[in-house]
């Protein structure tokens, strides 16, 4: 008998609008037990190919969507991991989220993504929503959160991983790197090239605490030598190419004999490079330029951009590893809860 024809003959009449298709409906149409459907949804390879084919056809025919929340209530958590980033416009987090999603999907976990636009109140609202869905874990960006957000997460009993930063007091687990050390690395590199009149150019550092920490690390390292001057210059808006142009002009006005800049990200550095070209300022002869992030254009812009690579993919893999360890009953303890992924300074033509 043709499997497709047999399946069509068993298709029930169209369900009334808003009447949810259940696992029982799938099992009935596929002529298997509900437990077999449940096993297929969790571990498809554990079901025989013939049964799996029938279940897949039934799911497609009925438009069945597993109720992960209902299923999770019995186990006190769903198969959802909530990830909250400062901005989905920021390319820096894309690699981390993509890697994290791939790693978790392989274990049957799905990702819900939210962005706080660097606002603590918005982040708190996203955390409240996430906890209402009984997530398997919550992933936040950075270590700076409102007191209420920390309180909510600490009381929830849900595994929490803060990513892209270490060096503070994490709620539970943390994966990332030291932002002050990143700033210090940039300063040491520029000083090693004989630069002495320095500026750090950043955007919305009143909200982007990690960028502010990189700026502080840069300034402290520059001043520690006793042979350099340093200004930290902040643009109140978003970190864009246009902001880089504006910031360079301010730096030229504020820093006598400016000969090097470090930027809070590669977009700002690119804007600074464009402005140097418009003004006829040779890079690196007149001004050395360093960025942060190692975005795709950094190696191919003219001149190629010296930058700092934060290993976003490694951060994603380590966050996933901590989450899965906790789910499998091997919750990390002690120093193993904090993973330092480090950073790499990539020297190119701009310095």
The CATH topology annotation of the largest domain reads as Rossmann fold
Going by CATH, the architecture of the largest domain would be: 3-Layer(aba) Sandwich
How many H/I helical runs? Answer: 13
Mean pLDDT: 90
For the largest beta-sheet, the strand count, sense and barrel status come to: 6 strands, parallel
CATH homology superfamily name of the largest domain:
Response regulator
Neighbour order of strands in the largest sheet? 2-1-3-4-5-11
Q: Unreliable runs, pLDDT <50, ≥5 residues?
A: 13-18, 72-76
SSE pattern: HHHHHEHEHEHEEHEHEHEHEEHEE
Helix content: 40-55%
Number of strands: 12
How would you describe the shape?
A: elongated
If you compute it from the alpha carbons, what radius of gyration comes out, rounded to the nearest whole angstrom?
26 Å
- What structural class should be given to the helix and strand makeup? alpha/beta
State the name of the first-level CATH class of the largest domain: Alpha Beta
The N- and C-terminal alpha carbons lie at a distance of: 72 Å
Summed up, the domain count is 3
- Residues in β-strands, percent: 15-25%
Keywords: DNA-binding, Transcription, Transcription regulation
GO molecular function: DNA-binding transcription factor activity; transcription cis-regulatory region binding
Pfam family, one: LacI
Domain HTH lacI-type: 21-75
């Amino acid at each position: 008998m043709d499997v497709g024809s047999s399946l069509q003959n068993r298709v029930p009449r169209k369900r009334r609008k808003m009447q949810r298709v259940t696992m029982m409906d799938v099992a009935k149409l596929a002529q298997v037990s509900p437990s077999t459907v449940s096993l297929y949804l969790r571990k498809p390879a554990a079901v025989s190919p013939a049964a799996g084919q029938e279940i897949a056809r039934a799911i497609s025919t009925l438009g069945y969507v597993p109720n992960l929340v209902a299923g999770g209530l019995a186990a006190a958590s769903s198969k959802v991991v909530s990830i909250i980033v400062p901005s989905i416009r920021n390319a820096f987090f894309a690699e981390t989220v993509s890697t994290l999603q791939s790693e978790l999907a392989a274990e049957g976990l799905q990702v819900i993504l939210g962005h706080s636009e660097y606002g603590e109140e918005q982040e708190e609202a996203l955390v409240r929503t996430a906890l209402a869905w009984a997530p398997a874990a919550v992933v936040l960006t950075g270590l700076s959160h409102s007191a209420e957000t920390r309180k909510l997460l600490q009381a929830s009993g849900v595994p929490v991983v803060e990513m892209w930063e270490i060096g503070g007091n994490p709620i539970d687990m943390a994966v990332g790197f030291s932002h002050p050390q990143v700033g210090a690395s940039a300063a040491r590199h520029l000083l090693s090239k004989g630069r002495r009149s320095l500026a750090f150019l950043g955007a919305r550092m009143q909200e982007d605490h990690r960028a502010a920490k990189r700026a502080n690390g840069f300034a402290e390292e520059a001043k520690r030598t006793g042979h350099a001057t340093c200004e930290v210059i902040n643009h109140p808006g978003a970190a864009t190419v246009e902001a880089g142009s504006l910031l360079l002009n301010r730096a030229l006005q504020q820093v006598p004999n400016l000969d090097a800049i470090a930027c809070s990200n590669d977009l700002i550095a690119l804007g600074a490079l464009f402005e140097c070209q418009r003004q006829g300022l040779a890079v690196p002869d007149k001004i050395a330029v360093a960025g942060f992030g190692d975005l795709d254009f950094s190696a191919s812009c003219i001149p190629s951009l010296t930058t700092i690579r934060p290993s976003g993919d490694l951060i994603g893999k380590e966050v996933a590893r901590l989450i899965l360890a906790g789910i499998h009953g091997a919750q990390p303890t002690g120093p193993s809860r904090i993973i330092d992924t480090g950073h790499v300074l990539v020297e190119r033509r701009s310095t």
